[in-house]
Amino acid sequence: MWGLVPLFWPLLKPAGAAEILAHRMAWSLVLVVVVLLCVRRWAWALELLRQPRRLGLVAVAAAVITVNWGVYIWSVNSGHVVEASLGYFINPLVTIAMGVVLLGERLRPVQWAAVGVGLSAVLVLAFGYGRPPWISLVLAFSFATYGLVKKKVNLGGLESLAAETAIQFLPALAYLIWLGTQGGLAFGHHGTGHAVLLAATGVVTAVPLVCFGAAAIRVPLSTLGLLQYLAPVFQFVIGILYFHEAMPIERWAGFGLVWLALALLTWDALRTAHRGRVELSRAAAAAERERERERVSRAGTPSESVSQDGVSQDGVSRETVG
What we know:
Largest sheet: none
Strand content: under 5%
Radius of gyration: 29 Å
Helix content: over 70%
Number of strands: 0
Structural class: mainly alpha
Distance between the termini: 89 Å
Shape: globular
Number of helices: 12
Mean pLDDT: 82
Low-confidence stretches: 304-322
């Protein structure tokens, strides 16, 4: 679903990117509140309000994802779908780099190679575009920061979206009211269908997130990681085949380097996961052998049992010995 979103934003014209963003924030809160009322999950909200540090992190996450949403909507409606897809292609590389710089994580050699190839790709694309691919970089860094902050907040997908959009709601509503007073509000001025589409931005935001949360529980993590590449792939294909964006040779070269970096990361992740499974299997087998040895040791050799008349199993009376 995320991969098909570029087809949706142009339907909201003539609304500008800022108005679409404001509607997305406002209607997303309306939708998640309705869902939370249905499932009756509110205990997390009171707990969050009692923790100022976590609440502050939620505010940071809300600010960062606002930038991400706004840039993405603008880029799609301004004819930069391919460059936007690049941002989500390089997002894993940015996440790894942030883990090293901010969290002191250590990389395996293949991961270092992938980061190096990714940096080379950015340089090639900067040459191809005649400027740094700033749309891609903003999307990648904002989403990587968002993921880092959400990891520290540790809220479920629906709860996290509710908390973030609750922070976004008042500024979004204030902007829409101000836009209406200035005569620039598109909502309600281009037919009922257009108004319904603007309200549907909440559905477009929340439904993929809820589905992703459900899939995360049921699908193996390695498979889930690979599936996340589908969204930028769909966006890339839509940008070329549907929006007919130009792809000169320099951009193909840059994207090729990005895909090589992702292939290295994927291969390394699958290899590491396989090794982990093998080591876990070996450890389980060793533990089972150890338990079996302990059972045999406790059983020991059959001990001489003495009968009630004082005669052992070998027929010798204990009372006559000695």
